[in-house]
Amino acid sequence: GSLQINEKDDKLKAAANEDKAAQSLLNKLIRSNLVNTTNQVEVLQRDPSSPLYSVKSFEELRLKPQLLQGVYAMGFNRPSKIQETALPMMLAEPPQNLIAQSQSGTGKTAAFVLAMLSHVDPENKWPQCLCVSPTYELALQTGKVIEQMGKFYPEVQLVYAIRGNKLERGTRLQEQIVIGTPGTVLDWCQKLKFIEPKRIKVFVLDEADVMIATQGHQDQSIRIQRMLPKTCQMLLFSATFEDTVWNFAKRIVPDPNIIKLKREEETLDTIKQYYVICNSKEEKFQALCNIYGAITIAQAMIFCHTRKTAGWLAGELSREGHQVALLSGEMQVEQRAAVIERFRDGKEKVLVTTNVCARGIDVEQVSVVINFDLPVDKDGNPDNETYLHRIGRTGRFGKRGLAINMVDSRFSMNILNRIQEHFKRVDSESLKQVVSC
Ligand SMILES: Nc1ncnc2c1ncn2[C@@H]1O[C@H](COP(=O)(O)OP(=O)(O)OP(=O)(O)O)[C@@H](O)[C@H]1O
Hints:
Keywords: ATP-binding, Cytoplasm, Helicase, Hydrolase, Nucleotide-binding, Nucleus, RNA-binding. It holds the Pfam family Helicase_C. One of its GO terms (cellular component) is nucleus. The protein is of the alpha/beta class. The protein contains 15 helices and 15 strands. The strands form 2 sheets. The chain has an 8-stranded mixed β-sheet with strand order 1-8-2-7-6-3-5-4, with helices on both faces. Strand 13, helix 14 (about 385-390) and strand 14 (about 400-405) form a beta-alpha-beta unit. Helix 3 (about 80-90) runs parallel beside helix 4 (about 110-120) and helix 4 (about 110-120) crosses helix 5 (about 135-150). The chain starts with a helix and ends with a strand. Bound molecules: adenosine-5'-triphosphate (ATP). Adenosine-5'-triphosphate (ATP) binds near residues 28, 31 and 107.
């Protein structure tokens, strides 16, 4: 009996963790811009007596010209909030260790990529920087950033230490930067000896919060870290900082400087919220068409409760001539990523999805959110958190959003009332009814 339960538990846990990595990837893909934040950074220095530098421009960092060129070619004008303090610390001589936490999209990846590229000696044809990521897809994303930023620095080469990349026995890597997943990186250092760990100068552990959620990754990462020289710079990044992450971070990064950037509170202040009363899903669809006929919607995200409804709605909308993207639970991560990328690039104007599928995905760029079905938890109670996350915005100045809730029964009206009740304390504006069918 209990064994079976454990197995089921493990499966559930594995699924949840896969989800975490998938969410992180999808968030990266859907976002093409820096998240705007006004929050202050909190800095804890290893040596509080040494002066703390922060920079307002990339020039101040005295980067190699090829790298500065790369940074500007990416369209970066100035360092992000977290980069202002993290970059001088990471580029200091002697190198300093760093643990940094800030929400996704605040410029962490770009920061450590720049640090790695700065520390590499292109004359030396062996691995000098090692970066571990929780999944193959996330490693590829970081690799792309390295390639973009290093575009004008072609002497620096990159190799992926991931399952599918099989090298011949006895290979000695020539590339200066290795990026991969913990298991393969460990094998390449230990068993296969493609990498000489003692020659690594910079070790980056990315997405620590996702990493520790995956069985085995934590131990593998620690084992990799132990093979590195004492002088190696250790850098760890995480979007969140619960105790488990923190304990792990301390084991990976000795004598760290610590930078934290608080997550902005989500609010409903700048969002106009409406509801529409209908009697069936067909009527809801008709109402949706009416809304589309009445206002110009650049890009909208529509949430449904089930895959079936989402599929049906996507079909109906296409028939009406809309360019629709459908994000659905049964899709593989790569398929979901492709859908999101197309939507982000504006190839489709409407993204239809289920609650489950889009949980945790930031819809920052979308100005209209439609709850075709209201968010409820598995017991059928209002899911206020999901409502806020879908509709709420963080630090978006002057941009007003629009949210439309579809009501089709007493039950859903009750859900909406309860959601409204829940947020009444914090929000001045209440929901308005717009059209009824
Ligand atoms: N200084 C900058 N100026 C403008 N854009 C930037 C800057 N730094 C990073 N970006 C862009 O902002 C987006 C988010 O940056 P990045 O991926 O580095 O954030 P992150 O904190 O690592 O997020 P995640 O945790 O999701 O990986 C990227 O599209 C990146 O190209």
